[in-house]
Amino acid sequence: MPQPSRRLQLAGAALLLVLGSGLQAQDPPPASTAADFLFQTGVSALSAGKYHEAEINFRRLIELEPASSRGILGLAQVYLAQKKQDEALRLLQAESEKAPRNVELHFAIGNLALQSAKFDLAIAEFHHVLDASDRNSNAAAQLYFLLGEAHRRKGDIDASVALYQQAQKLLPGNLPITNALAFVLDATGKRQAAEAEYRKIIEADPKNALAMNNLAFLLADDGTDLDLALAYALRARQLAPNEYKIADTLGWVYLKMKSTDEAIAMFRDAVEKDPASVVCRYHLAMALGQKGERAEAAKELQTALKNNPSKAEEQMIRELLHQIGQ
């Protein structure tokens, strides 16, 4: 029987390069010029939440060195810190129109557009930067990754996979890129390819609980190697005992192994950790129904219906209710 998707998105899959990543407040070097002093003072004020003071310093910096981007990027960060995303975007776009060849500004606009769910704008800006970059460089790999993120969030999964793979070719050992590729392959049903990527992650990072969890779920769901699935799920739970989705995966492995009591215990633990989870309650109902406790299973399913399931989840819940005679 199909079940709602509940894999964990791996840490790093949504990694964004920070706008103006050169802005760092800790241990700044001695200011060698008036411009350096204004920059460092602005960064310190921004870090301390003194936005008005930070804005004054960055505006002075813009006047002092109009050919540099750091004052503009600093001012944009001030706006972002105050949740003024539209104002920051307008600032960056206005400056980019004045200096259309400035790739720093295009990159910053792309990042901000990605964070603001303006995916077409993000894609256009990242392509602008990519066109000015060495296509075989680490910087190009980061751009392919960000383009993959933009396409994934836009819903263009095939393009996203291709871009992540291009990034991986340039940086084969980069875990955030492999994480992102594994997750999107998994989410689109390309199971064998996803399994291969999860194995790469685990080989490079033996304590990556989320990769172990996702691989365990795939192995159990396919029924290909339940013993290995159990080993991965148990190790993942050991590494992240408070993650309810890992408890749910372990329950799913036990359910596939016909260890119903153990499955129920794990699903109950998952539900206790996240009572609003539709998927965990659905899985608990499956296990209870497998044991013959139909009234309890129906109770869990009725609760799941009250937790705002998706249309697909609601259909599956109602199908299971019908199967158990409720």
Q: What is the helix content?
A: over 70%
**Strand residues, percent:** under 5%
> Largest sheet at a glance?
none
Coarse morphology: elongated
Mean pLDDT over the full residue set: 89
Order of helices and strands: HHHHHHHHHHHHHHHHH
Distance between the termini: 18 Å
**How many DSSP helices?**
17
Spans of at least 5 consecutive residues whose pLDDT stays below 50 are 10-29
The Cα radius of gyration reads: 24 Å
Counted beta strands: 0
Structural class: mainly alpha
Properties at a glance:
326 residues, elongated
How would the blueprint of this fold be written?
Layout: H1 34-47, H2 51-64, H3 70-81, H4 85-98, H5 103-115, H6 119-131, H7 138-154, H8 157-170, H9 175-187, H10 191-204, H11 209-222, H12 226-239, H13 244-256, H14 260-273, H15 278-291, H16 294-305, H17 311-323
Your description of this structure?
The protein is an all-alpha fold. The protein is built from 17 helices and no strands. Helix 5 runs antiparallel to helix 6 and helix 7 runs antiparallel to helix 8. About 6% of the residues have low confidence.
